Amino acid sequence: MSRRSGQVGTIVKEGGWYRVRFRLDIPGQYQRVQKSIKICPVSGPGLLTKSERERRKVEIVNSFGANSVERFRRVVEGATGVSFKEQAKIWLSDVQTRKRKPVKPATARGWQSYLDKWLNPAIGNMLIADANNSALREVVKRLDKAGLRPKSIRNIVQVLPMVVASAVDGNGEELYARRWNYEFADVPIIERQRTPMFTGEEITRLVVKAEKQERLIYVLFAASGLRAGELFGLEVKHLNGNTITIAQSVWEGRVQSPKTVNAFRQVDLHPTVAVMLRDFVGERKQGYLFRTRTGTPFLQSNFLRSSLHPILEELGIEKQGFHGFRRFRVTHLESSCVPPALVKYWTGHAKSSDGEIVRQTVTDKYIKMGKDTKFRADVAERIGLGFELPKVETVEVVPSVPSSQETEVTASI
What we know:
The structure is a single chain. The chain is mainly α. The protein folds into 3 domains: 70 residues, no CATH class; 82 residues, DNA polymerase, domain 1; 207 residues, Intergrase catalytic core (hpI Integrase, Chain A, Orthogonal Bundle), CATH 1.10.443.10. The protein contains 16 helices and 10 strands. The protein has a 3-stranded antiparallel beta sheet with strand order 1-2-3. The chain has a 3-stranded antiparallel beta sheet with strand order 4-5-8. Strand 4 and strand 5 form a beta hairpin. Helix 9 packs across helix 13.
């Protein structure tokens, strides 16, 4: 049922009376009924002037609630009666299957968990029309009582407005437009979010401790700042000289597109790391760059449990995930005075550090880091890695050096 436009009514002469005609919404049906209400006689006692008839017309129309938001809401509820839980199911299906910006599976799974564990138990049976700021406040109270951190609370409650906004009419207009008041709902402010980061010294110790394929994975994490899905999704074909191309990502073993449009990019490596990667690939022409014994990409959760976290515990380093490498890399780029445009390009950032969307500036439109390959390569070599590489086995040098000569990749970069 679509939202009706406002009515003013029409004055007509009928049977010796001035009448106002208008239409009225009726619960449970689409068609409106027509009303014809007397205003005054067309002559004699009780006759009103033209301006008085206009005022009386408005009074009559308003007295029936023809333009009332509350009446319209009751009509819609009578026709639909959709609960928050039912609307959430529709919304979650739509955001994954729509053609315009479908959400990633990992995001959808997170939202589903918020609904299953917190929102549906709290307000699932509530009519979607009643999911307002008061409902939001009750949800916040429940989450706070459960001891959740401010960041977790905000992540969960952000789903509620999205579900409500997804209830639209046949014209795509929101049925229950809300002005969400986070102050009224007492949604906590995030002041000190935990954002752990590896130091250069910790990474040096970590890569020394790791062995074989795992060592190179940690080196590349710290030397590139790639997201975990991007790194584990790399294939041999994505390595070209000293550059890796980010064209895909993996999540739970399934290939998907990178996180954002900005994530499609090329990342330039320090020459020493590039040599290590090429030596690791050897004669391979296809397949994942890093792979399990069966040739499949690593699962992030498995790799954390079986490799990274045990090594961190053994070394006495704070437990954290792959993003600690990414924060280290961004910090190293910033401290090395790398131009912000290049930092944004290499890291594939679409958001700032506080999570707000980064709007493209005029400068961004004219700076094309993807085209300036020489500058990028020069910067990648100049700034080094920010951590030390362990001594590794000898590798063949570039063809311009006699084949009998060997070099050792080592030391501080």
